[in-house]
Amino acid sequence: MMRRSILFLLGCAMLGCAMIGSAVTARAQDQGPWKHDVTQALKAASEKNFPGAEQSFVKALHEAETFGANDFRVGITLNGLGLVYREEKKYGEAEAAYRRALGIMQLVYGENLDVGNVNFNIANVLFDQGRQADALPNLQKTFTIYQKYLGSASLKTAAVICMEGDAFRTLKRYTEAETFLRKCADIREADAGIESTDLADAQYSLALTLVAEGKFSAAEPRFSLVEKIREKKLGITDPLLAQTMEDHAVVLRQLGRDKEAEKLTAVAAAIRHSQKK
After folding, report:
1. Lowest mean pLDDT among 26-30, 149-153, 231-235, 267-271
2. Which domain holds residue 273?
3. Domain end marker among 145, 172, 206
4. Alpha-carbon distance 231 to 227, whole Å?
5. Which of 70, 99, 61, 79 has the alpha carbon at shortest distance from 15?
6. Of 115, 145, 175, which residue sits at a domain end?
7. 174 plus 267 within the same structural domain
8. What's the Cα-to-Cα distance from 181 to each of 21, 44, 149, 274, rounded to whole Å?
9. Residues 169, 117: one domain?
């Protein structure tokens, strides 16, 4: 699945901070150092200076802890720090930061949208570590919260459904995977039509699931659709397009369409070769 940008994720985290801050009676001057360090962290992240962002978030965390171990600012800062750790591929540190943030946010807010977001962040970092089975409880909690606050047709809800489908596919629970991925694809198509990269991601995962189930005729047109979207949106030399063509070729051979498979394989090989230059 395509990862969301660090700036968008950090922006969401700090938007939550601003909204919560308006309801807090703490004196502005007391929050000054914390807000300064958070601002510096966001600036560093915007410049892809993740070590600098980490350093500023750690400073902000120390400032936040002066308000109390379970203060909302501690939870928000930990979530931001977790996002930066994830960008640095420090997955263990990211998971620990998220889990501590989750405990604080649940204590302070109950089961609100921010708690859903942190659960989703935990699921993402567990996926990064190949721990799809461990991610399922967090995904299921996220889905319950997103469905309540955002609705079943929300793209954020669809992202959770797709991840659940991918988890089930990885665990070889193909019937469940197919159900979830079809639902995700339907939401994304209804929102943006048949030319979005998010739809391509959902259809690609669904096609792989259908292949695993031996449903080659059902998988083939989905690979074709993904190729069209990825060629248009990502370009003819994108490695994701090459991967799609290679997987499509395997299905075409299963269907006895060897000449079409050979053509796709050749194009994919040319894309791979162009990436090495």
Report:
1. 26-30
2. 150-277
3. 145
4. 6
5. 79
6. 145
7. yes
8. 38, 36, 22, 32
9. no
> Is 134 in the same domain as 231?
no
Burial annotation 62-98 (CB, 10 A radius, 16+ → b, else e):
ebbeebeeebbbbbbbbbbbbbbbbbeebbebbbbbb
Taking the C-alpha atoms of residue 112 and residue 118, their distance in angstroms, rounded to an integer, is 10
pLDDT grade for 252, boundaries at 50, 70 and 90: very high
pLDDT score of 30: 58
Q: Same domain, yes or no, for 6 and 134?
A: yes
Q: What is the pLDDT of residues 61-110, one digit of tens each?
A: 999 999 999 999 999 999 999 999 999 999 999 999 999 999 999 999 99
Residue 195 · residue 233 · CB < 8 Å: yes
Amino acid 276: pLDDT: 82
Residue 275 pLDDT level (bands cut at 50, 70, 90): confident
**pLDDT exceeds 50 at position 8:** no
Give dist(CA 274, CA 27) in Å, integer. 58
Query: Scanning the structure block, which residue is given the tokens 């660090």?
Result: 6
Same domain, 170 and 51: no
- Residue 136 shares a structural domain with residue 155: no
Cα end-to-end span (Å), the chain: 26
SS3 label, residue 239: helix
Rounded to the nearest angstrom, the gap between the alpha carbon of residue 163 and the centroid of all alpha carbons in its chain is 8
